[in-house]
Amino acid sequence: MSATYTRAAPAPAGADSVPAQDGRRNALATLAVVAITGVIILAAAYFSNPRLGDTATGNFTPVTIDGLPVGAAPIVDSPAPDFIAALTDGTGVRLSDLRGKPVWLTFGASWCQPCRAENPDIMATYTANAGAVVIVQVYMDEDSAAVKEYIDRVGITYLTVPDPNQALSAQYRILGIPSHFFIDASGVLRQIKVGSLDPASMQAALDQLGP
Prior knowledge:
Blueprint: H1 18-48, E1 61-62, E2 84-86, E3 92-94, E4 103-108, H2 113-128, E5 134-140, H3 144-154, E6 159-163, H4 167-171, E7 176-177, E8 179-183, E9 189-194, H5 199-209
Parallel strand pairs: 4-5, 5-6
Antiparallel strand pairs: 1-7, 2-3, 4-8, 8-9
């Protein structure tokens, strides 16, 4: 003998949970907007604060720093944060030891297209100012082997520093590359520029540092 079972029609799927799901979605969307807005505000503050530097001047690649920065942030018209680092050839360099000549400290990477595009102009400016300026180029997220292969291939002869652990990039609060820090002969940071520079802008920044 067979039995027939009658079942009441079910409520629409998820009917009871629709308001709760909508509430969760709205809350998540609000949190996402707040988080994105916070990042934009922080980035805008960094790029536009006259005590930190100029607005982004050209093309740049946004970057993310792992971990917290150590030491004081770079501030225009204050001494540039000092550091000791290993150059690509294995010798050491200390920023404060370079005082006596203007220093152009620039952050980039061989994987950064705007950085690669402006490097020939940096090299040409360095050659045009031979003996009058020291250029130190920090390569973010790259070890000495990668940096050496790149600089040998493109003919870079100024000082280069691998930064595989982002230590210097974090110290200088890098948010985009290339980033440029122009330091006068007494060790005071005079300009910060984020983004690629044309040759005229490079020379003008160096000229403002004085002899």
